[in-house]
Amino acid sequence: MPVHLDQRLLTVAGLVREGAYLADIGTDHGYLPVYLVQTGRISRAVAADINEKPLQQAASAVAAYGLEQQITTVLSDGLKQVDDRVEDIVIAGMGGELIGSIISGAKWLKNAEKRLILQPMTQDVYLREYLAEQGFVIEDERIAEDHRHLYVVFSVSFAGTRQILSPEEQYVGKSIYKTDPLSRKYLQKKLNRLEKISAGLEKSGKQSEAAEHRQLAEQLKTYL
Q: Over 80: is that where the pLDDT of 36 sits?
């Protein structure tokens, strides 16, 4: 029976391409590559982490399921020690700025054949802007719900030209164009937060900033 993944990691797994050579950066317990090999979606992977303890846990999980021939564990700061022949790169469970920093440190990711699957825990707005400026395209965004938390997962490829995002696309992403319940829920959550920020700015006497946030909120309402 395959290792159990929560909804967040199952959503990440669903964006990995069939048969891809995978790198899981910040692998923690190594459950994602183990699951993907067990289910036959991929046949080989690199599980990388900057810290020895989680990497040892990942190595233990790989050994427990007898997958040492298919999954390699690597101590690595981001992608620095990772085989650049990997095709799909997962960077999940980190802040958007850290994800951007990891991508910046691996110029070989600027290759149309690579696929990035990114799951920012915070700073998703920053990450969308960073990717657009660096010539990456967010092909898809999926929302996962786990223990009443909503998580956004990006599927990203390299286009080579700077992308232009509208304020709504930068703030909410692909969810503004989707009609599934979780995308709607995510859009509503982002809208509520925007209105709360706007009210706080108004209270602080920052009228022009509050007006900007209110304007964006009104634009987002047209997508509901």
A: yes
Give the residue ranges of DSSP H helices in 24-164. Answer: 31-38, 52-64, 96-104, 124-133
Task: Give dist(CA 85, CA 82) in Å, integer.
Answer: 9
Question: Rounded mean pLDDT of 191-218?
Answer: 91
**pLDDT at 103 (0 to 100):** 98
Name the DSSP class of 176: G
Determine the Cα–Cα distance for residues 16 and 34; give it in Å rounded to an integer. Answer: 13
User: How many Å apart are CA 204 and CA 91, to the nearest integer?
Assistant: 37
Instruction: Give me the residues paired with residue 24 across strands.
Output: 47, 90
Mean per-residue pLDDT for 151-157?
A: 98
CA distance 3 to 198: 44
DSSP H stretches of helix in the chain = 7-13, 31-38, 52-64, 96-104, 124-133, 167-172, 181-203, 207-221
Give the global pTM.
0.95
CA dihedral of residues 71, 4, 138, 88 (deg, nearest 10): 10
Token digits of residue 199: 């009210």
